[in-house]
Amino acid sequence: MDRLALLRRGFLAALLLTGHAVHAADLMDNGDLADGSLSLASPAGAAWQLPDMQVARVLQTGSDNLADVSQTGTAQLANIVQQGSDQQAFILQQGENQIATILQIGEGNLADISQIGSDNQAAIAQIGSDNAASIEQFGSGLSSSVTQYGSGQSVQIVQHR
């Protein structure tokens, strides 16, 4: 299973962790979920399973929300899950394997991910309200993904190589 599929499964797991009701109609059959059992355990030898890993996870529910993560050098991984209210979130990572994730569920939304160099990945998922997003990635493996459901919406993805 590739890293993007694992990231998408992580979004589903994040939805479940925040207590958001997930209905069958919310899951579109577009290959986001592969056949088989859901396992958040990393497969042996996966590239993102490196030593010297910097991990940051933030989980917030209700009210004024804001999160900011900044990482530099080596394996990185960041997740932010916010559930309701004025939200924002930012992640900036700099060099090596990277992966970022933001999921916000309702109200002010905004997100941002900037990665700078190496194997990259990203993802943002905002579910409802004023939305916005942005992903910039600069060099190496790149990849992106934005999913916004309802309200103000807007998006910007810039990749370089």
What does this structure look like?
This protein has one domain. About 23% of the residues have low confidence. It is built from one helix and 13 strands. It is mainly beta. The chain has a five-stranded parallel β-sheet, with helices on one face. Strands 2-4-7-10-13 form a five-stranded parallel β-sheet, with no helix packed on it.
Largest sheet descriptor = 5 strands, parallel
Give the SSE string. HEEEEEEEEEEEEE
Structural class: mainly beta
- Summarize model confidence as the mean pLDDT: 76
The helix count comes to: 1
Domain tally: 1
How many β-strands, per DSSP? 13
End-to-end separation in angstroms reads: 24 Å
Integer-rounded radius of gyration: 15 Å
Strand content: 25-35%
- Widest sheet: strand ordering: 1-3-6-9-12
The helix fraction, in percent, is under 10%
Quick gist of this model?
By secondary structure, the protein is mainly beta. The chain has one helix and 13 strands; from the N terminus they run H-E-E-E-E-E-E-E-E-E-E-E-E-E.
What are the main properties of this structure?
1 helix, five-stranded parallel beta sheet, mainly beta, about 160 residues
Write the layout of secondary structure elements.
Elements: H1 3-17, E1 56-60, E2 68-70, E3 78-85, E4 90-92, E5 95-96, E6 102-107, E7 113-114, E8 117-118, E9 128-129, E10 135-137, E11 139-140, E12 150-151, E13 157-159
Parallel strand pairs: 1-3, 2-4, 3-6, 4-7, 5-8, 6-9, 7-10, 8-11, 9-12, 10-13
